[in-house]
Write a structure and sequence with these properties.
The structure holds two protein chains of two kinds.
Chain A (H helix, E strand, L loop, with lengths): L13 H21 L13 H21 L3 H24 L1 E3 L2 E7 L2 E3 L1 H17 L9 H20 L3 H8 L2 H6 L4 H19 L2 H18 L4 H28 L2 H10 L11 H11 L12 H4 L11 H33 L4 H25 L17 H19 L6
Antiparallel strand pairs in A: 1-2, 2-3
Helix pairs in contact in A: 1-2, 1-14, 2-16, 3-4, 3-5, 4-5, 4-15, 4-16, 5-6, 6-15, 8-10, 9-10, 12-14, 14-15, 15-16
Chain B lengths: L6 H26 L2 H10 E6 L6 E2 L5 E13 L9 H8 L3 H14 L5 E7 L1 H8 L8 E10 L6 H4 L2 E3 L2 H6 L9 E3 L2 H5 L1 H4 L4 E7 L5 E4 L15 E3 L3 H10 L5 E7 L4 E8 L12 H10 L8 H4 L8 H12 L8 E3 L2 E4 L3 E4 L5 E3 L1 H7 L2 H13 L5 H13 L22 H7 L24 H13 L2 E3 L4 E4 L12 E3 L7 H13 L16 E7 L7 E8 L6 E7 L9 H14 L6 H9 L6 H5 L20 H8 L1
Helix pairs in contact in B: 10-20, 13-15, 14-19
């Protein structure tokens, strides 16, 4: 294959692009439904659906522009992009507009830039570049520490906004590290931490500690011939105990009241359907009332009459659930799973580690958004304000996900080349 | 490919697992659990009840007795209220600032987004003034409702009133009513509730999160329209009713006038009455308490609830029953030495020494002796044991509609009382008693209780010469003018028509013969047949009673008048009855003005002192019946709650 034969779209993964367009179209129709007003056309430019159409067109132009770039561009300039987004993340703390308690937006004319959206992309690129160096071993401290620094810096800045949702997205990149050789103990440890976190808040500390001690004692007895395992169990126990106490401390002394309430609501410790729980309750009602086949397009009463706040952005899935029912929800989730598996497939077929690692980062970021957002609308997760990729209303979000995805498609189209 | 290639499957597995968890949860809340469907409907669906117009009640000439009048309820949605000039607002709707604060707080506590009633029933005048300024007060709006209005303030106790349903009524009608609905509480409003109320309509509308109307649900597929209640045509003659009420001002008692040929009640006056409009509107509660505490018991529906021993008018019944039994006839003579001697040394006095007297004269002159003898013949000399003869007599009397409620279309009608033979057997400890033991029944005193309605009905029987239709207040229902079947059935009093002749002649003489007891009630060219009565009252002055029908041939009106504590029947009741008859038959009064003025201006209310002295109940063999009217508090409670 020679360079002369290549068109822009040569070797482009059309399946991914198809999924991308499907999700964007679903988003556009549902945004229209969410703000539906019989007098307004879907392309009325003052309405959300009209604006979203502009964003979609812009996103498509940007997508084509990315495909036109040289694939080495991303590798080469990744430290620059990273640097710029870190600067923006700092700037937003100073000049940002405070929306809903989060200092996350920089107003540029009528457009509001959300640096954290682009930080995900830039961080993914730098991470890929760093880990992609031949013969690195992530288990070695000299590799791991700079990697954690690359991840930690933006996380720190985002927590200062504070934007717990975006921070969570960065944390999900742990799957990338796992794929690249990070010990599974980190994943298991992470899972145990989440479990302990929930248990600590639900039950008295004493019981949890007693159960943990008994469990470790039992396991140690079972593995009494394996000294290494016993060491693992005991150190795990000590870390868990420390964690339990720190969770207790964090919950009682560090979390802000509104964050505590959100967590309490999920755990069922409080129920407040008029106040903080209102969004989630109305969202569940909207989705639950959809039934198997939904109420029909533009027929959702919850959606139409504004019972669910934020319904074109973070709670867009309500509209899907209410108007399209379980079948609609199934299709949307199916599309996401298909897309994620496709991205992993693409990542795995990269010859260069840079492409593979970046691909996994894209999958993790999309996965985290998809999971947290939908879980939030059906009450499985606390209300964490992150958008549903490609579907939620919003220019920053759509543009950043487009850049994120098409960077991968560009790298993939050029996968035979050596980066 | 690197050495951790297989980890892709673990990551893919986690992705798929998470997606399955989400799908499982979605399947549960969307397909399995239908709680959310209901919640969504509750969110957006509002059932608006459309109240139908309550049926109007007309008099027999289609003049309005009760109609509906619009009032304006002031509603508020607290969430939409903006900063405003509260004092100005209070002035406009005529409430105080604390009252405003209280009402507003109550509304706010109920809901910020749903409307609650802020101020009930603004008058048309207040509303007119307020309406122009309404736009200055967002969040407030006015809802039309209709209340009952009585243009002539007449017949209060019979029309009854409506009020908000209580919990018991809600339960009784099995959810038909909900809190705040109106229901007939007494009178015709209550007994014809199901016809008057009509059928409520429902409009299903959808609302948004701010409770704003978003149009009808399914284009009104599930809506129903309200159907107005049936209009009722009363048998009352409004003019006659109001005339009777004016005659009874400052008197305690009743007037009941019946059309004998149909049983339709032409007028029914319970005095003292009240203005039915008092039971409507904002002052209703206060007015109700006032009426309840009034010593003359205006809420007591005397024509159907007050029971009196009938006195001499009962002689008419005894005269008829005795003839039917065959113990006397038109030519039976008794000697009246000025009283009737009974038992060993009993003596029932008579008004005069009548000498030898026949049946016709006995009625005309109201001779007690004649009826003592007649009663003795019926009970003691009938060939039966006196106990059984008494029962036969009682059964025949009861065929006149005495001792049982007549079944008028009003709630809480009383039965009256005519004691059973057992009653006397128990009282005298054995069944060997004779007429000497209850001789007072012969002249309508003693253990008898008859309502004014029953008295008038007896006159209808006499007028018809032997039968009656159940007295009723509603003669036709709705546009089709349906009449209840029970009011078209002829009830036989069990007396042969020929026996009425001497009695009616006697009654005619009562009014038309110069020595008749009610000659003062005579009207030129209208032959009234009547009978006076004076009811002994152990608690005060005797009650004045007069019953009559007219004209003698082809009678048009049968009437009973009771004026409590007013003495002789002839003094007050007879002239009142006479005026009523003339008013009905001629629509004008030919008697001189002073004749009417005397009645209109008379104040026969018992003195205030007497009212507050609880009369002691004497154990008296002659008059053991307690006057219901003197202790009606408990009865009122029964009828209202």
């Amino acid at each position: 294959m020679s360079n002369q034969n290549r068109s822009f779209f040569f070797n482009v993964d059309y399946i991914t692009i198809f999924l991308y367009i499907c999700l964007m179209a679903i988003g556009w129709f549902n945004i229209h439904a969410a703000v539906y007003n019989a007098d307004e056309s879907i392309i009325n430019l003052t309405s959300n659906s009209g604006k979203q159409l502009i964003y979609i067109i812009v996103a498509l132009i940007v997508a084509i522009a990315i495909l036109l770039l040289d694939s080495k561009f991303f590798f080469t300039f990744s430290p620059v992009f990273y640097g710029i987004t870190i600067l923006l993340l700092m700037a937003v703390l100073v000049v940002g507009r405070n929306v809903g308690g989060n200092q996350a937006w920089i107003p540029i004319g009528s457009f509001r830039l959300q640096p954290s959206e682009f930080a995900k992309w830039a961080t993914s690129l730098l991470l890929a570049r760093q880990l992609g160096v031949v013969n690195t071993k992530i288990s070695e401290l000299k590799t791991l520490l700079p990697t954690l620094a690359v991840l930690g810096f933006p996380i720190l800045l985002i927590i200062l906004q504070p934007d717990a949702g975006s921070a969570l997205v960065f944390i999900s990149l742990i799957f990338v590290l796992y794929r690249e050789g990070l010990s599974p103990y980190f994943l298991i440890g992470g899972f145990i931490m989440v479990l302990l976190f929930i248990l600590t808040l639900l039950y008295p500390k004493l019981y949890i500690i007693m159960v943990m001690v008994l469990l470790v004692a039992f396991l140690s007895y079972q593995f009494r011939k394996n000294r290494k395992m016993i060491t693992v169990f005991l150190s795990g126990l000590i870390l868990s105990l420390l964690f339990v106490f720190s969770v207790d401390f964090v919950y009682n002394h560090i979390l802000k009241p509104h964050q505590k309430v959100r967590i309490d609501l999920i755990l069922g410790k409080v129920s407040d359907l008029r106040g903080v729980g209102y969004n989630v309750n109305q969202s569940k009602i909207a989705i639950g009332s959809g039934g198997l086949i939904g109420k029909g397009y533009l027929q959702g009463t919850q959606t139409k009459f504004d019972f669910v706040p934020e319904q074109s952005t973070d709670f867009i899935f309500c509209t899907v659930g209410e108007e399209w029912g379980f079948i609609g929800s199934f299709i949307v989730i199916g599309l996401y799973v298909f897309l994620l598996l496709r991205i992993i497939h693409i990542a795995e077929r990269q010859r260069a580690p840079f492409g593979r690692i970046y691909g996994y980062a894209v999958a993790c970021i999309i996965f985290c958004h998809f999971f947290v957002n939908i879980a939030m609308t059906i009450g499985l997760m606390p209300v964490i304000g992150i958008p549903l990729p490609f579907i939620s209303y919003g220019g920053s979000s759509l543009l950043s996900f487009t850049i994120l995805l098409f960077t991968l498609i560009k790298l993939d189209s050029n996968r035979m080349g050596i980066v | 490919m690197n050495s951790f290639f297989k980890r892709r499957y673990i990551i893919q597995g986690i992705f798929i697992l998470v997606a399955l968890i989400l799908l499982g949860r979605l399947y549960y809340i969307q397909v399995v659990d239908d709680r959310y469907k209901l919640s969504a409907d509750n969110n957006v669906l509002r059932k608006l009840v459309i109240y139908p117009a309550r049926g109007v009640i007309l008099d027999r000439f289609s003049k309005v007795l009760v109609q509906n009048e619009p009032v304006y309820d002031l509603m508020v949605i607290p969430g939409q209220v903006e900063e405003m000039d509260t004092l100005e607002f209070c002035k406009l709707i005529k409430i105080s600032k604390p009252a405003f604060d209280k009402a507003f707080k109550k509304a706010k506590n109920y809901s910020l987004y749903r409307a609650s009633l802020f101020q009930k029933q603004l008058s048309a005048v207040t509303y007119a003034a307020f309406q122009e300024k309404l736009f200055e007060y967002p969040g407030f709006y006015v809802q039309n409702r209709s209340v009952r209005f009585y243009p002539d303030s007449t017949a209060a106790q019979f029309l009854g009133y409506i009020g908000e349903v209580n919990d018991r009524e809600i339960k009784k009608y099995d959810g038909f009513y909900s809190q705040g609905d109106y229901i007939g509480k007494t009178g015709i409003e209550k007994s014809y509730e199901e016809l008057l109320r009509g059928q409520r309509g429902v409009r299903n509308i959808m609302v948004d999160v701010h409770n704003r109307d978003q149009g009808s649900f399914f284009d009104g597929k599930y809506d129903t329209t309200a159907v107005a209640g049936d209009n009722l045509i009363s048998s009352l003659d409004k003019k006659l009713q109001m005339f009777g009420e004016s005659l009874m001002v400052n008197k305690i008692g009743s007037i009941v006038a019946i059309e004998p040929s149909t049983g339709e009640i032409l007028a029914s006056i319970s005095s003292p009455g009240y203005d039915p409009n008092m039971m409507v509107g904002r002052e209703r509660g206060n007015n109700y308490m006032k009426l309840l505490n009034n010593p003359f018991k205006p809420m007591f529906i005397r024509p159907i609830q007050a029971e009196y021993p009938p006195g001499s008018i009962f002689k008419v019944i005894n005269a008829l029953v005795a003839q039917e039994m065959g113990v006397i006839d038109a030519n039976t003579y008794f000697n009246c030495p000025g009283g009737y001697k009974y038992g060993r040394n009993g003596w029932m006095g008579c008004t005069h020494v009548h000498g030898t007297i026949n049946l016709e004269q006995s009625i005309e002159e109201s001779c007690n002796t004649y009826y003592g003898n007649t009663f003795s013949r019926m009970i003691d000399h009938s060939g039966l044991r006196p106990v059984n003869a008494y029962t036969r007599w009682r059964n025949m009397v009861m065929k006149f509609g005495i001792g049982n409620a007549l079944g008028i279309d009003l709630p809480a009608e009383r039965n009256g009382l005519i004691p059973t033979a057992d009653y006397y057997t128990k009282r005298f400890k054995n069944d060997k008693w004779t007429s000497s033991f209850n001789i007072s029944l012969s002249i309508g005193q003693g253990e008898l209780g008859i309502t004014p309605l029953q008295m008038a009905n007896v006159m209808a029987i006499v007028a018809n010469r032997g039968f009656y239709y159940k007295p009723h207040l509603i003669k036709a229902i709705g546009d089709k003018k349906i009449i209840k079947e029970e009011y078209t059935i002829r009830n036989d009093a069990g007396i042969e028509a020929k026996y009425f002749d001497p009695v009616i002649q006697g009654m005619s003489n009562v009014v038309n013969a110069p020595n008749g007891t009610a000659y003062n009630a005579k009207i030129n060219d209208i032959e009234i047949c009547g009978k006076t009565g004076t009811v002994q009252n152990p608690h005060g002055d005797n009650h004045s009673v007069f019953v009559a029908f007219a004209p003698r041939e082809n009678p048009k009106i049968a009437i009973a008048v009771v004026v409590e504590n007013a003495g002789y029947g002839a003094t007050w009741s007879a002239p009142i009855a006479s005026l009523m008859i003339e008013k009905y038959l001629r629509d004008s009064i030919t008697r001189p003005k002073y004749y009417m003025d005397r009645l209109l201006n008379a104040n026969l209310l018992p003195g205030q002192k007497k009212l507050y002295n609880k009369p002691s109940v004497k154990k008296d063999t002659i008059i053991p019946i307690k006057m219901e009217s003197t202790k009606p508090v408990s009865i009122i409670k029964q009828t209202i709650h």
